[in-house]
From TrEMBL:
Subunit structure comment from the entry: Interacts transiently with the RNA polymerase catalytic core formed by RpoA, RpoB, RpoC and RpoZ (2 alpha, 1 beta, 1 beta' and 1 omega subunit) to form the RNA polymerase holoenzyme that can initiate transcription.
Gene3D superfamilies: 1.10.1740.10, 3.10.450.50, Winged helix-like DNA-binding domain superfamily/Winged helix DNA-binding domain
Family: Belongs to the sigma-70 factor family. ECF subfamily.
Region ranges (Disordered): 1-20, 100-119
Protein name: RNA polymerase sigma factor sigX
Any GO MF annotation of the entry: DNA binding
Keyword Transcription appears in the UniProt entry: yes
Start and end residues of each RNA polymerase sigma-70 region domain: 33-95
This protein's UniProt keywords: DNA-binding, Plasmid, Sigma factor, Transcription, Transcription regulation
Species annotation: Nocardia farcinica
Length: 347
């Protein structure tokens, strides 16, 4: 079975605001809100690091917007007004010391034969987001914003205090002016600019220097993805490691352990990961603007496969720099529109 055999349909991006408590709502008003759903979801995801919390934040934004729509005077655009509400929602949700992270942020690399630690709660981790939740139909918008949805960028943003995080995203990703940002946060433009400088300084220290420079139009990178799937499904570790960067990182949230380097990746897959032999990958539309797969493992029943991970690849030019296996299949497979069982076609 190749990765193209089964097509997965992403989950529908959220429920309508009418379903959240606005019976008899004016259809035009609701439609005007919905037109901004994806970009607001992407904004909330950058702030919160979780697809699920981002969807909740957008729903709460629309609920608050509906309740206060009568006071909307139109001095700013509807988009700016919704972002102001969304920012306040996210700041309310971030009221606490907890920040999400990747395994690489919490500890150094482990030996491939190290005992597997117990899984950590889901709120510890930066989670993947389906492309369908974060990107609109405009290719130019996709190209302009995809880098700011990368796992590395979102994880780096988690090092910022919540208000600095909002300012950095609004100013440098969304290109809001200092005045627009100040109005959204009830601050002065001077305070916004000062906070932006502090946020930039922090990001320069914590953000990886390498970029996840995946380009879906690059034929060589598309071939690299195909070669990865072929090597993994064949469980050919020699072929697989030939595709990896020298300091490639393999991680498996919600497990904190991670390993670095092609040889350690191969040793891990032959040891703890040996149950993945014979697994199948279902290609997704993507996650965080990167190639992603629904990863299924064999079961004791011939021809039947069970969910194992949402697998997201990161790149550094012509090599794979990150293998991210998100193991919380009970939550993530429905989010990505994947079935909880995969069967080989009847012969």
């Amino acid at each position: 079975m190749s990765d193209s055999t089964v097509a997965a349909s992403p989950a529908t991006p959220g429920a309508s605001v009418a379903a959240a408590g606005a019976p008899g709502a004016d259809a035009d008003v609701l439609a005007s809100f919905e037109a901004h759903r994806r970009e607001l979801c992407a904004y909330a995801y950058r702030m919160l690091g979780s697809s699920f919390e981002a969807e909740d934040a957008v729903q709460e934004t629309f609920t608050r917007a509906w309740k206060s729509y009568g006071s909307f005077e139109g001095r700013a655009s509807l988009r700016s007004w919704l972002y102001r509400i969304a920012t306040n929602v996210c700041l309310d949700m971030l009221d606490g010391p907890q920040r999400r992270a990747r395994p690489m942020d919490l500890s150094g690399p482990s030996r491939p034969d190290s005992p597997l630690p117990a899984p950590q709660p889901d709120y510890v981790w930066v989670e993947p987001i389906p492309n369908a939740l974060a990107f609109g139909a405009d290719p130019a918008e996709h190209a302009a914003t995809k880098d700011s949805l990368r796992l590395a960028f979102v994880a780096a943003c988690q090092h910022l205090p919540a208000t600095q995080r909002a300012i950095l995203i609004m100013r440098e990703v969304l290109r809001f002016s200092a005045n627009e940002t100040a109005e959204a946060l009830t601050m002065s433009p001077a305070s916004v600019n000062s906070a932006l400088q502090r946020a930039r300084a922090t990001m320069s220290k914590v953000r990886p220097t390498a970029t996840d420079d995946y380009d879906e139009t690059d034929e060589n990178q598309r071939k690299l993805v195909d070669e990865f799937v072929t090597a993994f499904e064949a469980y050919d570790m020699d072929a697989l490691t030939a595709l990896l960067k020298a300091d490639v990182a393999l991680s498996m949230p919600p497990i904190e352990l991670w390993v670095r380097g092609p040889e350690n990746v191969a040793a891990f897959m032959r040891g703890h990961g040996s149950g993945c032999e014979g697994s199948r990958m279902v290609r997704l539309e993507g996650a965080n603007g990167l190639p992603a797969f629904g990863h299924y493992k064999r079961t004791d029943t011939p021809g039947v496969y069970a969910p194992w991970s949402i697998t997201v690849l990161e790149f550094d030019g012509p090599v794979i720099s990150g293998l991210n296996f998100f193991l919380d299949t009970e939550r993530l497979f429905p989010l990505f529109g994947l079935p909880m069982e995969l069967r080989e076609p009847a012969s």
